[in-house]
Design a protein that fits this description.
heterodimer, A: alpha/beta, 18% strand, B: alpha/beta, six-stranded parallel β-sheet, 20% strand, globular
Chain lengths: 145, 149
């Protein structure tokens, strides 16, 4: 699949590596010059340096024809705007992002992001679903797999 | 319809207390709304006029918990006027699309982001467009063909 990754942090760097090893076509947008350089040196992919919440930056990427946008910046609302821009202006089929605030998992889902991931939310779900101490132990065992 | 001697007051939420947010908060207060102004930095509240009789709330309005604390669920008017477009997009969408607020305004410095808010009953306030419109009107140029609003 054709996948765009926005954000230049360790998460983005790691994910680009995984996507490439799974034979996906990947392009990256990094807001920070140093991060863009790190990404370009690490992988043989097109890398754009610019603010990914800026429409003209995504136009440079020529988002049309992309199947997935993955927004991994450190700012929740930036990730929302990146996903919404991909959806509404470039017709990207699936939008994925990470969030710091666990409550944004449900909110962003309602606002058009296909998959919203929060570490604290995942841990909370495991705690809620496990009704006893033993089952919580088991839930954590499953999370660690 | 509510009857009685207490006037029925509507509730407004203003997010961002820069010079713009503070002025708008005063306008809305003077028109009989119960107003709460939110900003993440306390010095911002100095922009408020001495005659402003609404509430202030210090907090990060990109956190839904702060918006709820500020009374978003009962606000009939919401103004998202921080200096960050992405924050304003988030606040306006939560107000209009999730809480169903009747009247929502969002300040955008980059008017191209207007496309994100189309169709959600959110009014966009863009200083560039407003200045341009005012200039065209003041100097007496005919509006160009296809010019929006």
């Amino acid at each position: 699949m054709k996948i765009a990754v926005a954000g230049g942090n360790a998460q983005a760097f790691y994910l680009v590596g995984v996507l490439l090893s799974e034979k996906h076509e990947v392009e990256a947008v990094c807001a920070d010059r140093r991060e863009a350089q790190h990404m370009a040196e690490g992988y043989d992919i097109p890398v754009i340096c610019g603010n990914p919440t800026n429409q003209s930056v995504l136009e440079d990427l020529d988002m049309r024809g992309f199947d997935v946008m993955i927004a991994l910046t450190d700012c929740d609302v930036d990730n929302l705007v990146i996903c919404q821009t991909a959806q509404r202006l470039f017709g990207v089929r699936r939008r994925v992002c990470t969030v710091h605030n666990p409550r944004n998992v449900e909110l962003f889902g309602q606002l058009g992001v296909s998959v919203v991931i929060s570490g604290a939310y995942l841990v909370a779900q495991a705690i809620i679903q496990a009704s006893t101490v033993e089952s919580l132990d088991k839930a954590f065992d499953e999370l660690s797999d | 319809m509510m009857l009685g001697n207490i006037p029925r007051r509507r509730t407004a939420l203003v997010v961002g207390c820069g010079p713009l947010g503070a002025s708008l908060a005063k306008d809305v207060y003077e028109h009989g709304y119960d107003v709460t102004v939110v900003d993440s930095e306390s010095p911002a509240f100095r922009h408020l006029d001495a005659s402003f009789g609404g509430f202030t709330l210090l907090g990060d309005a990109t956190d839904i918990a702060i918006l709820e604390k500020a009374g978003l669920s009962k606000a009939s008017l919401v103004l998202a006027v921080t200096d960050n477009d992405n924050c304003n997009v988030f606040i306006a969408e939560v107000a209009a699309r999730i809480f169903g607020c009747a009247s929502v305004f969002a300040r955008l410095d980059d008017d191209r982001k207007e496309a994100l808010l189309e169709g959600f009953n959110i009014e966009v306030l863009c200083s560039r467009l407003l200045c341009e419109r005012q200039f065209v009107k003041s100097i007496g140029f005919e509006p160009e063909e296809g010019e929006g609003r």
